[in-house]
Amino acid sequence: MTELARKICLLGDFAVGKTSLVSRFVRNTFSEKYLTTVGVKVDSRALTLADGRALKLVVWDLAGKSELDSMNRSYIRGASGLMLVADGTREASLRAALYLWMQTQKQLPGVPVVMLVNKLDLVDRWEVSAADLERLQQSLPTFRTSAMSGEGVAEAFALIGERVAGVAP
Amino acid sequence: MSGYEDLRRLLLAPEQARLDAQDSALAALEQAQADLPERLPGLLEQAGSGEARPRLEQALAPVVGSALGDAVRRDRRAIADALFPVIGPAIRRAVAESLRTFVADLNRALEWSVSPRAWRWRVEAWRTGTPFAQVVLKHTLSWRIDHLFLIERESGLLLYRRSAPELAELDADAIAGMLTAIGDFVRDSVGGDEAGQGGLASATVGEHLLQLYEGPAANLACFVRGTPPAELAERLRMALESLHAGHARDDDFDWGMAAEPLLGPVAGQRAEAAPARAPARWPFVLLVLAALVLMAGMAYGAWQRQQTEQRLRAAIDAVPGWELLALTPGPPWRVRLLRDPDADPLSALAAAAAVPAEAIVIEERPYRSLADLPEERRLLRALAPPAGVQLSVRDRVARLAGHADARWQAEALATLRAWPGLAGVDAGALTVGPDPLLLAEYEALRAASGDFVAEFARGRAELAPAAVDALAAQLLRALELARMLDRDLSFRIVGWSDEGGSEARNRILREARATAVRAALVAAGVPAGRVLAIVGEGPPARRAVAIEWVEESPR
Ligand SMILES: Nc1nc2c(ncn2[C@@H]2O[C@H](COP(=O)(O)OP(=O)(O)OP(=O)(O)O)[C@@H](O)[C@H]2O)c(=O)[nH]1
Ligand SMILES: [Mg+2]
């Protein structure tokens, strides 16, 4: 197919809001209900890149895990980019996301990565401090997002889109 | 300088000569081997065709074997890529072979089926020289490809896609990804890690048959509706193999461009064989008709049930003292209700609602209703009103009418006032004392019976037949009225004579006459205890009897 398409994967601990971010991005919907993802759910959405090209972003929403198991290893095969998702109200989920990223390094060396620290609407309950975010931002693009309000979501996906468009699948 | 050279030559001359000779021999040898690469194929051909062949094979076998094994261990994927286009056709041939046997078996099985259609196909098979089974398959299979996806094996990204134009748009990219994920999942959980091993080959997805053809670099997913012929799978596999062959040759291989000429025509394929469609329509029509009949039947049934339910409700409603609690539609209809013991019996329900009695199951619980009719029945039993009194209950008001004696009236009114649930008592139409009409009739009868004369012949006591009939009727009625008026009535039959003669003789005659009338009255039904025959005392008067009423004072 001549159309440009890239696969990206969402990684992060359970219940951090991966599925919610995808449904905000793809369908612009949000639900309070928590239905944990089993295995993987694939969605897609077309993006227009800054240079005017169209990009089909195929988003693989992986079940939340704190460890990359063999199943997830086969799911991230062929991914051009990664989205790490953490829950701002759970400090541990940030470390889990970074740990997952580390585990993908051998399989996906040097693919573009963005970090989403989610649940910005609950910012007064955040355990992740501004200083931590500052430091994080130095090593990888970090977005503060809310799947609930939609804040930051489009920007994060747009950036990963730009980044993966230049990478061979 | 030359002195040194001379000295060296002197010292090492023999040595040098040998070295020079070896050098030139080496050069000659190198010269001779320079064209070995060109000559090797020829040499091998020569060796392969001649007597030396077994030796060559023997010599090469262990080397080639271990080298191949090594290569497979080191780079399995590359070998698989290389072998895929080669192995594919071989497998296909095997499948085609087994299919041919299957068709032959089917042929034998079908040989015996006879129908006009089967005969037509038989003729076609005979005409075209194809096996009968194949003709049958061709005519009976109806199928189409709805979607055809070529999916990059590793990333699950869509390389090429064709969907039937009339279908609703779907997110093919997401589906391709999910298919890949599912394939990975199946492979991971079932085991096996290489192309075409342990993966998902087919599945049913709704009305679709999903067929997956796996290649080393790309998979084909085909959503088919109906039963596709075996050739379809063959064509798809072939297309996938030649795509892979192209991919292996070309580093900048464009899957999409290459796929169009190969897969485009296949994707458009479908078979809705005209002969298969015509007969396929009437079962559908029948099905629709059957569904319509069924629906109509169901609607009628529902309507009928509704009617029955309405009738049952109305019938229960109409009877005072029946109170419906629950009605479960049937049959059997389950009726749970309260029934006043003084209301009509429930055996009347079936007839009233026009429902067969066996179609109703009644569960009855007793209760006391305040409805007029059962209350009236209860009051009648409790008060036992005398003959001249009418008791009725209307709108929960008890009404007394007629004539009763003072004692009964007092008791009745006391009971009625204490009766729970009554809204009022209306005794305005009740008069105390005997009913004047009854009294008048009673007195008229007394007068009439006083006029009774039974004439006798001189000196005789025989009564003319039917002489007392009218009298007997009067006396019976009088007794009835007396009971209503609460009087104790009896009669005396007094015998008389007008003849001269001895007093003793007259006495006998008078007694005989009174006795004869009494006997006739008793014979006509007047209770014997209520009539007494006596002898008139006194001078001769007339040859007759007289009726006297004897009343005891009211009880
Ligand atoms: N307040 C708030 N809640 C959120 C947000 N994003 C997700 N949630 C809630 O968090 C819960 C988990 O969300 P999911 O999107 O299902 O989480 P997940 O990461 O996909 O979880 P797994 O599939 O189990 O890995 C749900 O109840 C969401 O409604 C957010 O931005 N703000
Ligand atoms: Mg999820």
Give your account of this protein's structure.
With 169 residues, chain A is of the alpha/beta class. Chain A starts with a strand and ends with a helix. Chain A has a six-stranded mixed beta sheet with strand order 2-3-1-4-5-6, with helices on both faces. The model of chain A has no long low-confidence stretch (mean pLDDT 91). Chain A has one domain: Rossmann fold (3-Layer(aba) Sandwich). Chain A contains five helices and six strands. In chain A, helix 3 links the parallel strand 4 and strand 5. Chain B has 555 residues and is of the alpha+beta class. Chain B folds into four domains: 160 residues, Beta-Lactamase, CATH 3.30.450.70; 84 residues, GMP Synthetase, Chain A, domain 3 (2-Layer Sandwich), CATH 3.30.300; 61 residues, 2-Layer Sandwich (Alpha-Beta Plaits), CATH 3.30.70; 116 residues, OmpA-like domain (60s Ribosomal Protein L30, Chain: A, 2-Layer Sandwich). Chain B has 16 helices and 15 strands. In chain B, the strands form four sheets. In chain B, strands 1, 2, 3, 4, 5 and 6 form a six-stranded antiparallel beta sheet that branches. In chain B, strands 7-8-9 form a three-stranded mixed beta sheet, covered by helices on one side. A three-stranded mixed beta sheet of chain B has the order 10-11-12. In chain B, strand 4 and strand 5 form a beta hairpin. In chain B, helix 4 packs antiparallel against helix 8 and helix 5 packs across helix 6. In chain B, 23% of the residues are buried. At the A-B interface, strand 1, strand 2, strand 3 and helix 2 of A face strand 2, helix 7 and helix 9 of B. Bound molecules: guanosine-5'-triphosphate and magnesium ion. Magnesium ion binds next to helix 1 of chain A. The site of guanosine-5'-triphosphate has 22 residues of chain A, from helix 1.
